[in-house]
Amino acid sequence: MLEAVLRKFGFDDVTIETFGNGLINNTWKITTASNEFILQKINTAIFKTPDAIDSNISNIGSYLKNHFPNYLFVAPVISKEGKTLLPVENDGYYRMFPFVKNSITKNVLETPGQAYEAAKQFGMFTKLLGGFDINKLQVALPNFHNLSLRFTQFLAALENGNQLRIKEAAASIELLKSFSSIVKQYEQLMLHPTFKCRVTHHDTKISNVLFDKNDKGICVIDLDTVMPGHFISDVGDMMRTYLSPVNEEEADFSKIQIRKSFYEAIVKGYYSEMKEELTDVEKNNFFFAGCFMIYMQAIRFLTDYINDDVYYGAAYPTQNYIRAQNQIILLQKLMEKESLLKNLF
Question: How many CA atoms lie within 13 A of 140 on its CB side?
């Protein structure tokens, strides 16, 4: 099947190897006699409208090429039929990107310097697209970061979910309920006239930034989740995934920490591009971005656990419960440092 797809891009004699450790799309590295490429099969169970993603990437790419031609935008490869998205009957949708030579992706964040560079790149991406008409962006994942909806789904799960699991998770449920003021603050912000809707990446994990050999950021990648949104989604996701030395899979909760130097790096990196773009209301809610994202993810993990793991699935029976507890502790530790971190800038 892959060979047939590659022929549509004009490739016959190539080397194919699986690439990366992404959980959503299937990805392969394609090596020809003179170049390297990344081939992906879009996961339509998650992204139900591949054409919307393709349109978004095309429109963003055209805007950046016209207005900021020196910015490295990794545009999809055009097939022999003039398409960047290839539907394959009874199989799915494929697309190809050039592999950026001498670039490095990181699955684990190691230094504050890397956090700074990543935050700078995500800030730059949003800043450069400040003049882009967000009405041209289609919503690939409806309600992706809608905290009000996630909280409503959580309450519904408590009414209709697995009663044994609800009983087991009683302490975590009460903790999440006790933090419901985060939902109220989110809803107030969504109504505030200067809390701006912008071009937002929505998935700012470290593996979505390309680095050079000197740990300098090159550009952001994986634009499938780019939609109209708010800066708290990007900044919050960086805080959720950069601040602690361990991720949400860690079951030894004593390892969860809030690293002040990494928080400083996120602020400095993002502000290096976006400080003059953010409104006063947005700046005043920079710390809140982390609370918003961590709380929402804790709710989503616990909701899925109560609903018998129908969304995320589970490699072992309590995986989503562990993930939820992990995120609750991360949230508590972040909130404990509020006065310290908010006064840094």
Answer: 26
- Distance CA(236)–CA(186), nearest Å, equals 12
Q: Among 194, 206, 208, 189, which Cα is nearest to 277's?
A: 194
Burial 308-337 (b: 16+ CB within 10 A, else e): ebeebebeeebbbbbbbbbbbbbbebbbee
* 46: number of Cβ within 10 Å: 13
4: left (phi over 0), alpha (psi -120 to 50) or beta: alpha
Structure tokens at 63: 């805007």
Give pairs for 45-51: CB < 8 Å, separation 24+.
46/141, 47/140, 47/141, 47/224, 49/138, 49/140, 50/85, 50/87, 50/93, 51/85
CA distances (Å), 154 to each of 171, 176, 185, 300, 315, in order? 15, 10, 18, 7, 22
The span from the CA of 204 to the CA of 184, in Å, is: 24
Q: How far apart are CA 315 and CA 289, in angstroms?
A: 30
37 forms beta bridges with 30, 98
Sequential DSSP letters for 295-313: HHHHHHHHHHHHTTSSSS-
At 242, give phi and psi (nearest 5°).
-105, -30
Looking at residue 50, its amino acid is P
Indicate the pTM of the whole model. 0.93
Q: Which of 246, 209, 338, 332 is nearest to 286 (CA)?
A: 338
| 57 three-state secondary structure | helix
Amino acid at 274: M
Give the count of alpha carbons within 13 A of 255, CB side only.
9
pLDDT tens string 165-222 = 999 999 999 999 999 999 999 999 999 999 999 999 999 999 999 999 999 999 999 9
In the chain, the largest separation of any two C-alpha atoms, in whole Å, equals 60
Distance between CA atoms of residues 175 and 180, nearest Å:
9
